[in-house]
């Protein structure tokens, strides 16, 4: 069971990193320092961004459940 949760944790971690990198930058911050501030308003739709937000939250919830489950199983096994 611990192995299965660890595999889910690794997969969800990689997916979470990729999904976060797919998000569009919203502020000035560091993204505008490297040329991210030169975006046009036509890059992407609001619906796609909403769906990306939902998928990111769902994968994040899976990630949290996998961490808590792994921690509990490791604690109970010791």
TrEMBL record:
Keywords, sorted A to Z: Cell membrane, Membrane, Protein transport, Translocation, Transmembrane, Transmembrane helix, Transport
Chief location of this protein within or outside the cell: membrane
Location(s) in or outside the cell: Cell membrane
Membrane topology note: Multi-pass membrane protein
Record flagged with keyword Cell inner membrane: no
Segments traversing the membrane: 55-74
The organism's place on the tree of life at top rank: Bacteria
Function description: Involved in protein export. Participates in an early event of protein translocation.
Assigned protein family: Belongs to the SecG family.
Official protein name in the record: Protein-export membrane protein SecG
Organism: Pseudonocardia eucalypti
Lineage: Bacteria, Bacillati, Actinomycetota, Actinomycetes, Pseudonocardiales
